[in-house]
Amino acid sequence: MTIGSSLWSFALVVGVLTLTPGLDTALILRTAALGRRRGAWGVVLGIQAGTLAWGALTSLGVTALLTASHLAYEALRWAGAAYLVWMGARMLIGTFRRDAADHTEDTVEDTVEDTVEDTVARGFRRGLTTNLLNPKVGAFYVAVLPQFIPAGANHLAMGVLLASVHVALGLVWSTALVAFARGLGNRLRTARARRLLDRSAGTVIAAFGVRLALGD
């Protein structure tokens, strides 16, 4: 296998993975739909930074040690599950609090989270944390990445190069997601739309956390 054929083959595999709706999609759409442009791009960059980190760690053999150590894997799995369930539950609880406040449907509600400044740094932290606390990403890279490293190639350099392909595809897809959410504009920022959006995203994120805790 040459480097060129390796990159193309890996791009096909991670391309399908990128287009499959999941946690990253829910998090990006939700942030962008709330009008937080800088925050949405922060989430995108954080997720892709995490992907690049997993690729580098896999190439160095660190994630192989993680998957070999049951205790380390379980600790990361439970930490990730707790974080996702907390994030999803926070979104869901917030919607019921807004219902109790009896706001009009066409008013963009003022919640505690709305008062937080829309920054790239805040979104980056959320995206990076979500990605790095998901051991399934590491397990995927451990299982798949070595198969695409040609014999004789530098493992670290090739691993980072392959992960960069994943990042590039992720950035293209994320750009489309952000554009789609922003294109809907104010229609997603009414009180009713906000509740539906947060309940949908919160349910998806919390469900991922529960699945991670159950080891599915």
UniProtKB/TrEMBL annotation:
Compartment(s): Cell membrane
Pfam families membership: LysE
Membrane spanning stretches: 6-29, 41-69, 132-149, 161-184
UniProt xrefs under InterPro entries: LeuE-type
Keyword Manganese appears in the UniProt entry: no
Membrane topology type: Multi-pass membrane protein
Key words, A-Z: Cell membrane, Membrane, Transmembrane, Transmembrane helix
PANTHER family (UniProt xref): ARGININE EXPORTER PROTEIN ARGO (PTHR30086), ARGININE EXPORTER PROTEIN ARGO-RELATED (PTHR30086:SF20)
Name the UniProt record assigns to this protein: Threonine efflux protein
Species of the source: Nonomuraea coxensis DSM 45129
